[in-house]
């Protein structure tokens, strides 16, 4: 079973990750069920209601749908998408994205014409059907880049010492805690966040994002096109390790890179990380488990797999047996990972099949639960979407110093 979503899901969730934006699904009602559940779980809004009897919502709190039926595949359903845009366009959404289901895309209804007829050209966009054949990261990245192109004002004024956080989406584990920590880290360095693009931001913040002085990239697969757009069109400087800040050392490295590029003092930010590092060392003195020689497998993006594998290998003397990578068009992270593994004669673990048993599997929450329940691993560790069964009441990110504490808790503790 492959739990990996495609680029169209990524594009939808990129928009669903914006507070005052909305997605219209042009397709049958059944196609939006899982998307509605995913959206509500990834970015729950307060007081969501079921919109009983409201056109196009029909009992769902999110993702209005045109509800095409069998005859529409013969005669077309343009009138439905035009009506849906008219209805949703009267609401308070500042941005609307129209997404066709795979079947509806074959009908060929002119969604761009429906946008123009409803005079929504300045705040609506139609998703390219080719996204369905692209990786998840590509869909998120390119949808956000297209949105910035549409919404960005014609003129902009750079605001000194300001930052956009890129490469973070509502599909990444405990993204609100990631924003909270990195906003604090940047603040300790005298930097202010303008926009966390695609992760809880508003459309006004998206428009202001072109005024930022720097872009901080946390997961480069999800911000390749977006970061290039900001750099080439608006002169915003990119700050990126080429991989994600997972573990204390990687977080330190990112702070030092921010310090180097911005010229701001990073001592207070490094002290922030060191506070968690000291607590980790204090707790590990009580650790009875000996992980040396234990095997592990990882199934995620290359930018996450590299720092995670390195941390587990160097800090715990654990041995990787399989590192399976999500598809991506950003190759630098995989290159870094391969170089590291080659140094230790472990390059054959890239995309290797899982053995019958492995001590730990770090992957999406659903697979982690299934693998542990079927006794294919001693422990399955939830590090990414999809994770429908788990709700994170306590902070559970994987990025930053707080992410290191979550991972240590899951790696070391038996439950």
Give an account of the 3D structure.
The chain is of the alpha/beta class and 415 residues long. A four-stranded parallel β-sheet has the order 5-4-6-7, with helices on both faces. A four-stranded parallel β-sheet has the order 9-8-10-11, sandwiched between helices. Strand 4, helix 8 and strand 5 form a beta-alpha-beta unit. The longest helix is centred in the middle third of the chain and has 18 residues. The model has no long low-confidence stretch (mean pLDDT 93).
For this entry, give a set of tags.
415 residues, alpha/beta, 16 helices, four-stranded parallel β-sheet
Listing every helix as H and every strand as E from the N terminus to the C terminus, the arrangement reads HEHHHEHHEHEHEHEHEHHEHEHEHEH
Query: Helicity level, as a percent range?
Result: 40-55%
* Largest sheet descriptor: 4 strands, parallel
- Percent in strands: 5-15%
Number of strands: 11
List low-pLDDT spans. Answer: none
Q: Which sequence of strands runs across the widest sheet?
A: 5-4-6-7
- The structure class reads alpha/beta
Shape estimate: globular
User: What gyration radius follows from the Cα positions, in whole Å?
Assistant: 22 Å
Our count of helices gives: 16
Determine the mean pLDDT.
93
Beginning-to-end CA distance, first to last residue: 25 Å
């Amino acid at each position: 079973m492959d739990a990996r979503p495609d680029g169209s899901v990524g594009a939808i969730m990129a928009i669903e990750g914006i507070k005052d934006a909305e997605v219209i699904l042009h397709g049958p009602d059944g196609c939006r069920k899982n998307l509605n559940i995913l959206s509500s779980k990834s970015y729950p809004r307060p007081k969501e209601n079921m919109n009983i009897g409201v056109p196009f919502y029909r009992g769902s709190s999110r993702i209005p749908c045109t509800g095409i039926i069998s005859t529409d595949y013969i005669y077309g359903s343009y009138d439905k998408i035009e009506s849906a845009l008219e209805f949703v366009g009267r609401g308070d959404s500042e941005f609307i994205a129209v997404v066709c289901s795979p079947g509806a895309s074959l009908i060929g209804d002119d969604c761009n014409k429906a946008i123009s007829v409803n005079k929504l050209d300045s705040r609506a966009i139609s998703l390219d059907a080719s996204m369905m054949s692209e990786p998840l990261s590509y869909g998120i990245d390119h949808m956000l880049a297209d949105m910035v192109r549409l919404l960005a004002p014609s003129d902009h004024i750079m605001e000194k010492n300001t930052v956009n956080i890129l490469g973070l989406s509502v599909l990444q584990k405990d993204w609100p805690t990631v924003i909270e920590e990195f906003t604090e880290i940047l603040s300790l360095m005298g930097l202010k966040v303008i926009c966390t693009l695609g992760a809880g931001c508003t459309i006004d913040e998206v428009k202001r994002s072109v005024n930022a002085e720097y872009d901080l990239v946390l997961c480069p697969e999800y911000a390749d096109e977006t970061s290039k757009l900001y750099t080439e069109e608006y002169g915003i400087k990119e700050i990126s390790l080429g991989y994600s800040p997972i573990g204390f050392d990687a977080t330190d490295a990112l702070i030092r890179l921010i310090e180097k590029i911005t010229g701001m003092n990073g001592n207070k930010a490094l002290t922030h990380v060191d506070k968690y590092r000291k607590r980790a060392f204090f707790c590990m003195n009580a650790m009875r488990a000996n992980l040396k020689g234990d095997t592990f497998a990882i199934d995620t993006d290359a930018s996450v797999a590299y720092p995670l594998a390195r941390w587990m290998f160097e800090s715990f003397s654990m041995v990787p047996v399989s590192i399976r990578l999500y598809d991506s068009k950003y190759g630098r992270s995989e290159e870094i990972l391969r170089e590291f593994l080659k140094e230790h004669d472990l390059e054959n673990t890239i995309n290797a099949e899982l053995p019958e048993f492995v001590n730990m599997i770090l992957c999406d929450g659903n697979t982690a639960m299934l693998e542990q329940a079927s006794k294919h691993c001693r422990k399955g560790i939830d590090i990414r979407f999809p994770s429908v069964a788990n709700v994170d009441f306590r902070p559970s990110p994987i990025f930053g110093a707080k992410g290191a504490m979550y991972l240590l808790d899951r790696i070391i503790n038996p439950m």
